[in-house]
Design a protein that fits this description.
The complex is a heterodimer of chains A (302) and B (254). Chain A has 302 residues and is mainly α. Chain A has helices spanning 26-57, 63-67, 80-111, 115-128, 133-147, 154-178, 182-190, 195-224, 227-230, 254-263, 267-300. In chain A, 70% of the residues lie in helices and 0% in strands. Chain A is flat, with a radius of gyration of 28 Å. Chain B has a single domain (6-99, 156-249), classed as Rossmann fold. Chain B has helices spanning 46-52, 83-89, 104-114, 120-133, 137-140, 153-165, 183-196, 209-215, 233-238, 243-249, and strands spanning 6-17, 20-31, 35-39, 63-71, 74-75, 90-93, 171-175, 201-205, 218-223, 226-232. In chain B, the strands form two sheets. In chain B, strands 6-7-8-3-9-10 form a six-stranded mixed sheet, with helices on both faces. In chain B, strands 2-1-4-5 form a four-stranded antiparallel sheet, covered by helices on one side. In chain B, α7 (183-196) links the parallel β7 (171-175) and β8 (201-205). Chain B starts with 5 loop residues before the first strand and ends in a 5-residue tail after the last helix. Classes of the chains: A mainly alpha (302), B alpha/beta (254). At the A-B interface, α7 and α8 of A face α2, α3 and α6 of B. Chain A: Residues 83-288 form the ABC transmembrane type-1 domain. Chain A: Its main location: membrane. Chain A: InterPro entries: MetI-like (IPR000515), MetI-like_sf (IPR035906), Phosphate_PstA (IPR005672). Chain A: It is a multi-pass membrane protein.
Amino acid sequence: MTNDLTIPVHRDSIIVNSIYNGKKRVSDSLLIILIYLCALISIFILMGIMGYVFVRGVPQINVSFLTTVPSTIKGTFGILGNIVNTLYVVAITLVIATPLGVGSAIYLNEYAKGGKVVRIIEFTTETLSGIPSIIFGLFGYVFFGTTLGLGYSILTGALTLSIMVLPLITRTTQEALKTVPESYRSGALGIGATKWYMIRTILLPSAMPGIVTGIILAIGRIVGESAALLFTAGSGYILPKSFLGKIFESGGTLTIQLYLCMQKAKYDEAFGIAVVLLVIVLAINGLAKYLSHKFNTEAKES
Amino acid sequence: MNTNTIKISTSQLNLYYGTNHALKDVNMELYTNKITAFIGPSGCGKSTYLKTLNRMNDLIPGVKIEGEVLLDGENIYDSRVDTTLLRKKIGMVFQQPNPFPMSIYDNVAYGPRIHGIKNKSELDDIVEKSLKGAALWEEVSGRLKKSALGLSGGQQQRLCIARALAVEPEVLLMDEPTSALDPISTLKIEDLMDELKEKYTVAIVTHNMQQATRIADHTAFFLVGEVVEYAPTTELFTAPKDSRTEDYITGRFG
């Protein structure tokens, strides 16, 4: 290398290939327009449906719609019974599916490392989550309803839905466990924690955001499910006479009632229920976002 | 100096990862209140050997271990061994600082809580003592309830040392504890190690030969799973007996 200290100068005169004023590429602009169009169309469809449902549904909603049950004597048509049934189904399904799902995820991820069995189980759970829900309904009706003799009841419906959301909870929990750094595990075991103590104190708290998100998504599926419930939980709409007794009685959720309204061509009521459902689903998704965000920032907080 | 008492003695230790013979006939003694450094090129087995000393290799599937590791005369691979009690006696600090995503206080109290200490004031004492022992107390005493993840890398590593000290171990294993740290944090940890050996027996894996000469009383040179040479540090670095050791420490390979 030479050691001269020449000052670099811009010599405009010798520029042959200028970087200015290249040709605008037509295909690029065209593609951008197309992509914007696609985005616009999908947003428009979504907003359109929601808007239509709200415009037609909101006028149906009033105090009596939300606080009464259908009665020919009183001449009321309300969905309180269905709201209560929905809460029952959600709560019981989660009580059954959450421990099972989280437990099996812990087993798959922490105890049964690798191996053929695990791959088969993972494949099965993945397949299970793709099965049309009416098949779960068929199985639930035959097995829980008839064979176990539970009939049309909230419990039959909840058991059926538990099987349906189990893969979802298992998978999300597994994914959450996989994101926990290996160093946390060895760190805890290295000071003498037993495996279960480590899982309880380090893994589960760290994986909590993912687990909670999974549970909330499961709630979303439960609330939105109809095919699997029609022949399991049935379509009862009366309010529970006793808190636990209701579990063994038939109870239609909001989606079932919506289906029945459509069947009877009661479209106004159907749109009213649709609005309630949409609000619930939006609220659940919002909650999921909020919680996972909250957990994330809490973990990073200094 | 003939005041060396044996803390851990290894004889004829062989370790296999599947078909890979990772440690070959390792015989070595670690002495009480001394720092022993393990040096050698990557993949030579020095970290593997360190991990056999508190049975962290047990966690790896397909690992097979033969031979004997005696801690105060008890074989740590005996079937009667409770790894929880073993790891209480032999603590470990890892290459990457790995504080748990919880408060500084809870990080240090984690170990004592495993071993059943629940009393608040007792835990307070342990936390303070351990953080002082790891030369971190002054920096964090005002924010014990804050998340440990907000500390700097060097502070995190000293927190991990404090966490290991909190269960009052007798031996401290350190797997390249400073390789992820800046020079100033490294210096602090080296100073700390010099104090730690007053109370503990320390074994450290290091890639940095200068570090070994600065802190270690004894040094072992590993090469492809074998201990080529094990001697007092000054002797190993000034008058190596094996030509491979000489080649390595003079920088001819590795």
